[in-house]
Specification:
Oligomer: single chain
Largest sheet: 10 strands, antiparallel
Strand content: over 45%
Structural class: mainly beta
Number of helices: 1
Shape: globular
Strand order of the largest sheet: 9-10-11-12-26-20-19-14-17-16
Number of domains: 2
Distance between the termini: 27 Å
């Protein structure tokens, strides 16, 4: 494992210096009304992250930013598409919610670009800031209504996106809610784009997709996507070559890393192991780019024209298909976790991301614990010592953590007698535990020299 991290001593030293200097000051949350493209919008902030919400543009989030970097690709609104359609189109980009019918004869949607949501700021701070958006009933979905709530919380770099689809009609319908997000890959210079984006997710189980993912369309053999078998990860590198991949991860997370900005956008969700999904996929990743390929029996050719085909990476997260009788609702939550750190991601969870897994190195009477993590909270971290039954035997403080930079752990500890597992736990600025970043079993201590064969 250490051979994969030959830079570890220098990186650990640099990150430890940065982490020691980091504070845990957590400004209050705020929600304010503003303008965007001539319409009303809402800005949610908490000192760590910013979300610009545009209710009048289909209830979408136009901007999700941290430390001055906006992850999302925002379109420029109405445009005349000359490539494949002649009617006036709209493209506002960002992140939006929609729905997929199980019955292919039903009308898919909603078409959020053309929908105006009625909105209300329901929390203005200081602990939370939140806006609720109610879409129109039956437009364009007969009898259905979409509602979205976007929330930020004090001291956390998480943004919670909660969507609800309600059947306001008189007939039963089966739908899947989905959330789509576009990530910007534009770059200065004559080319106009860069391969700065990497997407990670757990590789899909073989009973879902034998290769760990399904290649839906695009230029075969481009090498953009691969499975990192030792880590059990699907990885996609942006390259402005059109393609789409389907995923069915057993653990619900998908992360997009910007290599130059050292910025990470994680989407956390709860997949259902027994649920039925559109195309068997609980998530998809798509590269918007040029290429020649076949899709649906048709030959597709997309030129390298950044005005018509802007460079971005798009993700879709789906809920399982759910039958809705009159008056019934389907709720779906995707939590975004923003943090700074390495563009290599091993896994993600409610507390943060793992860049280098926790490792425990025993000696005769002590252990050395190492790892690199990105936290979704401004607060602190500690080691937790547990026995075989999961009972906590003790803790050891590791100092402060912040979403603004990765936290390298390199600590020496004396585990209490009976310790079987060691974990790194994140705490918020009030000292409350918010989740485990990573954990590892405690290996047996080496035998004294006199007892070794």
């Amino acid at each position: 494992m250490l051979r994969s991290f030959r830079y570890l001593p220098g990186l650990l030293f640099g990150l430890l210096i940065l982490s020691a200097a980091a504070g845990t000051d957590t400004p209050p949350c705020a929600a304010e009304s503003t303008d965007y493209l001539g319409g009303r919008a809402v800005r949610l902030t908490n000192g760590l992250v910013e979300a610009l919400v545009a209710p009048e543009l289909g209830g979408r989030v136009i901007r999700a930013a941290m430390a001055g970097h906006s992850f999302l690709h925002a379109g420029d609104g109405p445009k005349d598409s000359e490539s494949r359609e002649t009617e006036l189109k709209t493209d506002f980009g960002g992140d939006w919610a929609g729905a997929v019918p199980q019955d292919e004869r039903a009308q898919a949607g909603p078409a959020p670009d053309n929908m105006r949501f009625v909105w209300e700021i329901i929390e203005k701070g200081p602990e939370k800031a939140s806006v609720r958006m109610d879409g129109p009933v039956g437009s364009p979905l007969p009898g259905l209504q979409l509602t979205r709530t976007i929330t930020v919380t004090r001291g956390s770099s998480k943004i919670v996106s909660h969507s609800v689809l309600t059947n306001r009609g008189s007939r039963r319908a089966v739908w899947s809610l989905k959330e789509s997000a576009r990530f910007d890959a534009t770059a200065p210079g004559p080319q106009g784009f860069s391969d700065v984006l990497l997407a990670y997710a757990p590789a899909s189980p073989e009973d879902a997709f034998p290769k760990g993912y399904a290649f839906l369309y695009g230029e075969a053999g481009s090498g953009a996507a691969r499975v990192l078998k030792r880590a059990g990860l699907f990885r996609l590198r942006f390259g402005y070559r059109a393609g789409k991949w389907a995923l069915a991860p057993a653990v619900g997370w998908l992360a997009v890393a910007h290599r130059q900005r050292q910025a990470i956008f994680t989407q956390l969700f709860e997949p259902s192991p027994r649920g039925a999904y559109p195309g068997k996929a609980s998530a998809t990743v798509r590269v918007n780019g040029a290429g020649r390929f076949a899709e649906g029996g048709k030959d597709i050719e997309i030129d390298e024209d950044l005005a018509r085909t802007p460079p971005y990476l798009e993700t879709e997260i789906f809920s399982p298909y759910t039958g809705l009788g009159p008056g019934e609702s389907l709720a779906f939550t995707v939590v975004w976790g923003l943090t700074k750190g390495s563009s290599y991601i091993v896994r993600a969870g409610p507390a943060g991301v793992v860049h280098m897994p926790l490792a425990v190195w025993p000696s005769a009477h002590r252990v050395t614990v190492t790892g690199i993590f990105g936290s979704f909270y401004a607060g602190s971290a500690r080691l937790v010592f547990e026995n075989d039954a999961g009972f906590r035997l003790g803790t050891q403080d590791l100092g402060t953590v912040t979403p603004m930079q990765a936290r390298a752990v390199s600590a020496s500890a004396s585990p209490p007698a009976g310790t079987a597992r060691i974990s790194v736990e994140a705490l918020d600025d009030s000292g409350s535990a918010v989740g485990i970043l990573d954990s590892a079993p405690l290996p047996p201590s080496p035998a004294p020299p006199s007892e070794q064969p």
